[in-house]
Design a protein that fits this description.
This protein is an alpha+beta fold. It has one domain: Roll (Sulfate adenylyltransferase). It contains four helices and five strands, in the order E-H-E-E-E-H-H-E-H. The longest helix is centred in the last third of the chain and has 9 residues.
Length: about 110
């Protein structure tokens, strides 16, 4: 199964179904299908989601694509991404990974 790590503060939002995408840079290819999202500080704290599609676009395009341009100005998004990827810039090509919620994933796996 594919696997990615998340910072601990994001795990509750994924569990509640509020976070259904993640942005990655130079971490390898993720494809549609099952994905295990693990707490970066505790791999036992994990959820499984279904990746629906993956887009490759510039970091500067991500906020608009997600309908969050007003909430995520370029400087704010860049600062947040640089916490994890110090060399990233707004022109960097990133993967925008879209996924179902854990509940939707469970239903899909159960054939509902």
């Amino acid at each position: 199964m594919q696997r990615l790590t998340l910072v601990p503060r994001l795990m509750p939002a994924v569990r509640r179904g509020e976070k259904t995408s993640t942005i990655r840079w130079q971490e390898g290819v993720i494809v549609p299908g099952l994905l295990r999202l693990e707490n970066r500080q505790d791999a036992a704290d994990a959820v499984t989601v279904w990746v629906t599609h993956v887009e490759t676009l510039r970091l500067s395009e991500v906020a608009a694509r997600l309908g969050k341009a007003a909430e995520w100005p370029d400087a704010w998004l860049l600062a947040g991404m640089r916490e994890h990827y110090p060399a990233i810039c707004l022109s960097s090509e990133v993967q925008l990974i879209h996924h179902l919620t854990p509940a939707q994933t469970e239903a899909k796996r159960a054939g509902r």
